[in-house]
Amino acid sequence: MERVEHPLKPIYNEDSKILILGTMPSVASRKKEFYYAHPKNRFWLTLEMVFHEKIEDKTKFLLEKGIALWDVLASCEIKGSSDASIKNAVPNKIEEILKKSQIKAIFTTGTTAYKYYYKFFKEKIDLPVFLLPSPSPANCKVKQEELNAAYQVLVNYLDCQ
To answer: Is it the case that residue 151 has pLDDT exceeding 90?
Structure first.
């Protein structure tokens, strides 16, 4: 178990309309200094499939689509990349992104992110929150087709904005 400080800046701009929140960057993401960097994580593949386009520049893709990306936690004790091992969690300052953007809805990638979002922000932020399945390789019980179906809500939500 080690104490980990969130090393990545949020990705967003003033035109961001939805916010996707994970829990805490994995060991691979911390090492590569970018979100969802584990080669078996299906986050980027799923976005490519639901938006029907190849993602070359991930940051540019997110910003052009109106998607903000960050994590719920600023720091925590964690064993490796295991969300289940998280203890002594401290929240990120999500409100700062909301003040500087047009976020209308929040989506969490997995139940742990959802749980911590509700623990820290339920009373502070009045926006709809949607639970998406985790794209982590640890969540192998969820097939790619199921991820695609669940993440299609992102496209639908952005189309309505």
So the answer is: yes
Looking at residue 85, its amino acid is S
Closest CA to 107 of 64, 156, 143: 156
Q: How many CA atoms lie less than 13 Å away from 124 in the CB half-sphere?
A: 13
Alpha helices in the chain (DSSP H): 27-32, 43-51, 58-65, 94-99, 111-121, 144-159
Kindly list the structural domains of the chain, giving each domain's residue range(s) and its CATH number in brackets, ordered by start. 2-159 (3.40.470.10)
67-106 per-position pLDDT tens digit = 999 999 999 999 999 999 999 999 999 999 999 999 999 9
pLDDT of the residue at 137: 82
Which secondary structure element, helix H or strand E, spans residue 74, and what is its range? strand 73-78
Specify the 3-state DSSP secondary structure of 128: coil
